[in-house]
Specification:
PROPPIN, WD40_rpt, Methylamine Dehydrogenase, Chain H, WD40/YVTN_repeat-like_dom_sf, Autophagy-related protein 18b isoform X1, 4-stranded antiparallel sheet, mainly beta, 28 strands, globular, 365 residues, WD repeat
């Protein structure tokens, strides 16, 4: 594996809604890549940006400047058309923009104590959500129009989550997930499940959004670590895999589907069951598959599950023999990595590095 100890030149990194593309920005430019091929699709030398958000693979981008140039204020959101190479619309705010999320109907803008919801097509403001102080802009968004939810912290002293229905424009629920404040949140693409991690970073919890109940709890490790990212695998129902990256430099994969199969054999309770809030609520460590030292310790990273392949067993059509997951990783030291994670029916796993390339030659060109 390449040496990734060089200082970061990446200001931000994000995958689009279906993980088919990703964006990065540096001190003087932003660039769009195809996740499958690694091909550079678009680049623009226009200064430093702290947010570059894609809308699937369309020509629409949401851009927020880093404030290093007078024209790129962190309080201004620019909706940019890559085909025309020009802005479509700009929205100005009183404080810095900390996060932006989009789907085909909604635009969400997160500030430190307020979150704004817009109709993406008309840019009419639909709602303003008053939130607890959220200086990191922590949020999660499910792009599905059928289950379109926004999740933001609901407390500064504990790990509570406010879940808001962005289509119906109303609060859905509040989930008490952890004793300490949140560090990471993720929603499945269909909006059915939410994963959370606290600042302690030792437990990852998965809740069923419709019932606001804790369905599963996975132990990442014994010692505290900062969770940099959480991401569900693609699925129309319960995702097979949840991926996490942390400051320890490891990539963690949790087998949600295998956990269901194991629990359903032992108990009549199913997804709605609530586990006790204690160390014992962590599920079997066999469902935790770790790739150690994938990234140097302390280097920020962002991982997603791009694709899941399931091979069915011969004894029963409903029994699979293995899962192959394609996991893509962006490191803030300037690398893109792609792994195949194979998990067989015995829950034995193998991580294989399929490709890795340095984003620095592209950044510095």
């Amino acid at each position: 594996m390449a040496n990734q100890s060089s200082p970061s030149s990446i200001y931000c990194a994000s995958f689009n809604q279906d993980n088919s593309g990703f964006a990065i920005s540096s001190r003087d430019s932003f660039k769009i890549f195809d996740s499958t091929t690694g091909r550079l699709c678009y680049e623009r030398a226009a200064g430093a940006f702290v947010i570059v958000e894609m809308l699937y693979s369309s020509d629409l981008l949401a851009l927020v400047g880093a404030g290093e140039q007078a024209s790129l204020s962190p309080r201004r959101l620019c909706l940019f058309n890559t085909t025309r190479g020009s802005p479509l619309k700009e929205l100005n705010f009183l404080t810095s923009i900390l996060a932006v999320r989009m789907n085909k109907k909604r635009l969400v803008v997160v500030l430190v104590e307020k979150t704004f919801v817009y109709d993406l097509n008309t840019l009419v403001m639909l709602d303003t959500i008053d939130t607890v102080p959220n200086p990191k802009g922590l949020c999660a968004f499910s792009p599905s129009l059928e289950g379109c939810f926004l999740a933001v912290p609901a407390s500064t002293t504990k790990g509570a989550v406010l879940v808001y229905n962005v289509i119906d424009l109303q609060s859905h629920s509040e989930i008490d997930a952890h004793r300490s404040p949140l560090a990471a949140i993720a929603l499945s693409s269909n909006g059915m499940y939410i994963a959370t991690a606290s600042e302690q970073g030792t437990l990852i919890r998965v809740h069923l959004v419709s019932e606001s109940t804790k369905s599963y709890s996975f132990r990442r490790g014994t010692y505290p670590s900062t969770i940099y990212s959480l991401s569900f695998g693609p699925s129309t129902q319960l995702p097979d895999i949840l991926i996490a990256t942390s400051s320890s430099g490891s990539i963690h994969a949790f087998s949600l589907m295998l956990a269901i199969n194991q629990r359903s054999k032992r108990s009549t309770s199913f997804l709605g069951s609530v586990l006790p809030d204690s160390v014992s609520d962590a599920l079997d460590p066999a469902h935790h598959h770790v790739l150690q030292n994938a990234v140097p310790s302390g280097i920020r990273s962002y991982a997603v599950v791009r694709k899941i392949e399931k091979l069915e067993g011969t004894s029963s059509p409903s029994q699979f023999t293995s899962i192959r997951a394609t996991v893509s990783v962006i490191t803030y030291s300037g690398y893109f990595q792609e792994y195949t994670l194979s998990i067989n029916s015995k829950n034995e796993s193998l991580w294989t590095l399929e490709r890795e390339f340095n984003l620095y030659p592209v950044i510095s060109s």
